[in-house]
Amino acid sequence: MIELAELEKQADKKKNKFTKVSRPRDEATNNEAITDAVAQSTEERKRPQGIKKAKEGLRRGGGEACMEALDKMWAKKEAFDKEKEKAKEERFMASLEVDKAALELEKKRVSNEEKKLKRNCSRRKKR
């Protein structure tokens, strides 16, 4: 009886090794055991924040100061993006005006060419 109790104590002290079994029916039970062991080990390792980190957090103002700085940077970025978009729109409009002017010139050139051809054709017919 004493030997059985000692064997049970030793078995409890031994580290359980989890191996992947190629049999599918055993795989489900092993996965559950592994996740339970991982969950227990992570809970045990949580420690309170150290003094240095706590002081550093107080000096920086905690999360509020970081959020304020981030909001300020985001506002600057949005303002810059608006100006950039406005400049882009102005360039596009200027380019559009140049294209319209070029199209008008091309239409005038074509109409002048047609007039010249009509004159030349009418002169040839008169001869």
TrEMBL record:
<dbReference type="Pfam" id="PF14303">
    <property type="entry name" value="NAM-associated"/>
</dbReference>
<feature type="compositionally biased region" description="Basic and acidic residues">
    <location>
        <begin position="42"/>
        <end position="60"/>
    </location>
</feature>
<feature type="region of interest" description="Disordered">
    <location>
        <begin position="13"/>
        <end position="60"/>
    </location>
</feature>
<keyword id="KW-0175">Coiled coil</keyword>
<feature type="compositionally biased region" description="Polar residues">
    <location>
        <begin position="30"/>
        <end position="41"/>
    </location>
</feature>
<feature type="domain" description="No apical meristem-associated C-terminal">
    <location>
        <begin position="16"/>
        <end position="110"/>
    </location>
</feature>
<protein>
    <recommendedName>
        <fullName>No apical meristem-associated C-terminal domain-containing protein</fullName>
    </recommendedName>
</protein>
<dbReference type="InterPro" id="IPR029466">
    <property type="entry name" value="NAM-associated_C"/>
</dbReference>
<feature type="coiled-coil region">
    <location>
        <begin position="93"/>
        <end position="120"/>
    </location>
</feature>
